Amino acid sequence: MPTALVIGASRGLGLGLVLVHELERRGWQVIATTRDGASPAGPPVETLEMTDPGQLAALRERLRDRRLDLLFVNAAIDRGNLPIGEVPTAMFTEVMITNALSPLRALEALRELVVPGGTVAVMSSEQGSITRNTESGYDLYKASKAALNQLMRSYATRYDGDGHTKLLIDPGHNRTRLGGPDAPLAPEETIPAVVDVLEAQNGPGLRFLDRHGEPVPW
Q: How much is the pLDDT for 88?
């Protein structure tokens, strides 16, 4: 039975009823993390505030004897549609730490638990594509996802020979707390396709893919 660790199962696309339960439905053993330790109904749950390096180190210690076939980091916040000139410094820092820095800290802290041939994946967004940034709005969120993608590229270069499949996943615009109630996609439809991609991809190098497994331009 393959084992997955899903970081960020409290809300949105990481909610247990969606991503975690889909993995379980397919025969995965899942460990989920939530910020408050509340269970998403089903899998073992670990408490983790991902922005706290001390908590990441403690999680690594608790899981030191486990081996993972999939390490999946799903975490993001959005603080609204302010033009970048109106974004307070504290807001900029908060979003960048949560959306870009902390996911990579999580990978660095936990990557040695992933077996050779396993997968390391991060939930990104088409909003992080510089090529597709052709409409105004959501400057800070877009910048944070572009920064995430760049940091993941650096990570993939640094650990090029570790035998892990490395993925950035764009799930599309979904009706979640982050995506809003008017988004065109439902997580219950999107997540099975995302898991198809996670299970199908194998091999060296970093790939930025959408929910259909198609490349997203950088």
A: 97
